[in-house]
Design a protein that fits this description.
Elements lengths: L10 H4 L5 H18 L13 H10 L7 E7 L7 H20 L6 E7 L44 H16 L4 E4 H7 L3 H9 L1 H8 L5 H6 L3 E3 L14 E3 L4 E5 L5 E5 L5 E3 L1 H12 L3 E5 L3 H13 L6 E5 L2 E2 L16 H7 L2 H9 L6 E2 L5 H14 L5 H4 L3 H5 L13 H11 L4 H11 L9 H18 L10 H15 L8 H14 L6 H12 L7 H8 L1 H12 L5
Length: about 575
């Protein structure tokens, strides 16, 4: 998904792009027209631009004084999960659509921001030796000891740095074009100093936004500034006792009871997270940021504070939450749901990005069961891409998944079919699968079909971990037994080396209709449950073509013999 290749020449088609990234790109363009061409007009929502209005806006837009800034945020209080990846992937999709819409003529940046200066409030459950981190509660995440070791000691010096490295490693592996920014580094370097002084000067206005959102107890002691204790190093949730805007300092009570005056600059304090979010938008000039629906009220508060700080808040986009297979919200500290490495054990990064593309406004389950379908849906769209009209290609998900440059071809065999093949062959090694694939695809080798070879790795792992332990073949009922006997007879008269899955599929359909299965899908479900030990799968004709007609007939004979494996 790297965004370096040019997307020039696509503006006309992008104006009419129907997918959500193009809708967001047009909304962002409307914001930029208002904010940068008419900075004094702040009333109302952004106007939506139609095709003709987009063309007019592009014609009259002056040279940009700075890049268009996209941002994603990450809290490294736990290991990165797929939701974090999804936010970066989706934001990259909008960035790519925006580049196409604007003829790739305007500079853009994607900042992946880690809020790693937050204090550790709870020890995560999914780390080694969690009890060792209890003494570090309250310390900034980049000061919390690293519980992960590589044999020579801690891997990265702190828990926050470790989690940052894990996130960057995955984003780099996928080829994202981004700039990583650490909150700790930004505060300490002085990058935020001007914005922090402005926040101090407008302390009362920020409080007027925040206090009504808090309960009575919290309201009594709340301050947007969280000082870092000079004695313990902890991030303190304490009142601001005095403010000195001219000097850029505040006074607070340290943990030992002493009153301390400290500058708000240079990393000596950090802001509470909603004012911090707003300050970051203002300091970095963020134009676009998406967030989950649980943060709708937070976006509203941060947007008001951003305006108090003298800047326009970014164009927002709200997506639904990611859920584990039990329907619970994904949590970094609990580690429920899939981790990024979990998905990559069973599916390609492209299939994960494809899954993230699908309807962000709908809640998504992030369990192992979604991986095979996502893999095959991705491959189906990739197969369709070359035959589509140029204007329609922009609406194909693979265009967004690959930042406008999808590969020429994918795998000639689906993930689902490979799973079925692994099931009947009881394959614990992809070499077993390749014995069938080489016959079905003459001349094919792992070297000549690298995408297929990678897919066989994923399929064998998924079969071994999830299918084999639960596979239960059953005996056919009377209707199924008669139909399978009929199917066996029909397949026996076909050429034994037939590799045309469509011809075989037609015979399977004919048998289902002849034996009055209603609905017809009950016939296919019966085939899969009796022959493969599962209730669904890919087209049976395609499976039989790859597995081989003689082998498929033998599978039917085994089932008809009344001895399910």
């Amino acid at each position: 998904m790297a965004t370096s290749p040019s997307l020039a020449g696509l503006s006309a088609a992008a104006r009419d792009g129907r997918t959500w990234p193009f809708e967001q790109a047009r909304n962002l363009l409307a914001r930029l027209v208002r904010v940068r061409l008419h900075p004094d007009e702040h009333a109302g929502a952004e106007p939506l631009l139609g095709s003709g209005q987009v063309a007019a806006a592009l014609d009259r837009f002056p040279a940009l004084q700075r890049p268009v800034v996209f941002e994603t945020g990450y809290g490294p209080s736990g290991l990165p999960h797929i939701g974090t990846f999804g936010e970066v992937a989706r934001t990259t999709m909008v960035r790519t659509a925006f580049r196409a819409l604007t003829e790739d003529a305007w500079p853009t940046r994607l900042i992946c921001f880690s809020d790693d200066m937050d204090g550790l409030r709870k020890v995560p459950d999914n780390i080694p030796g969690p009890e060792r981190l209890i003494p570090d509660l309250g310390l900034p995440l980049t000061a919390v000891r690293d519980p992960f070791e590589d044999g020579a000691g801690p891997c990265h010096g702190s828990f926050g740095r470790h989690n940052n490295a894990e996130l960057r490693r995955f984003l780099d592996r996928f080829g994202f074009d981004y700039e990583f920014l650490s909150s700790t580094d930004a505060y300490r370097s002085g990058m935020f100093d001007d914005a922090l002084r402005r926040a101090l000067q407008r302390f009362d206005e920020i409080q007027a936004v925040m206090l009504p959102t808090l309960g009575p107890d919290r309201r009594a002691t709340y301050s947007p500034f969280l000082p870092i204790s000079p004695t313990t190093g902890r991030v303190l949730q304490v009142p601001t006792l005095e403010r000195n805007p001219e000097d850029g300092t505040i006074v607070f009570e340290d943990e030992d009871g002493t009153r301390v005056e400290t500058p708000v600059t240079g990393g000596r304090v950090k802001l509470q997270w909603k004012p911090d979010w707003a300050m970051r938008w203002a300091a970095l000039g963020v134009d676009y940021e998406m967030s989950g629906k649980d943060l709708i009220d937070s976006v509203k508060a941060a947007s008001r504070i951003c305006r108090i700080l003298g800047a326009e808040p970014p164009q927002p986009y709200t997506f639904e939450l990611f859920l584990d297979e039990a329907g619970a919200k994904i949590s970094k500290s609990k580690g429920n749901g899939l981790g990024m490495e979990d998905w990559l054990r069973y599916g390609a990064p492209e299939s994960l990005a494809f899954y993230m593309f699908q309807n962000p406004r709908a809640a998504k389950s992030l369990g192992y069961s979604v991986v095979p379908r996502a893999a095959d849906d991705y491959l189906s769209n990739l197969d369709a891409y070359p035959g589509q009209e140029p204007a329609k290609r922009l609406d194909n998900p693979v265009w967004s998944v690959h930042a406008g440059h999808p590969p020429e071809r994918g795998s000639p065999v689906s993930f689902g079919l490979l799973l079925n093949l692994a099931s009947v062959a009881n394959a614990a090694d992809k070499v077993v699968l390749w014995r069938y694939l080489a016959r079905y695809l003459p001349g094919a080798t792992p070297e000549r079909e690298p995408s297929l070879d990678q897919l066989t790795d994923y399929a064998v792992r998924y079969y071994t971990d999830f299918v084999a332990p639960t596979r239960r073949r059953r005996a056919p009922n009377a209707q199924e037994r008669a139909a399978m006997s009929d199917l066996r007879a029909r397949l026996a008269v076909l050429p034994s080396d037939l590799s045309d899955g469509e011809t075989i599929q037609n015979e399977v359909y004919a048998v289902g209709k002849a034996h009055a299965f209603d609905p017809l899908r009950a016939w296919f479900q019966g085939l899969y449950e009796v022959l493969l030990g599962q209730s669904q799968g890919p087209r049976f004709g395609s499976f039989a073509a790859v597995y081989g007609l003689p082998e498929t007939i033998a599978l039917l004979d085994e089932a008809l013999g009344g001895a399910p494996a």
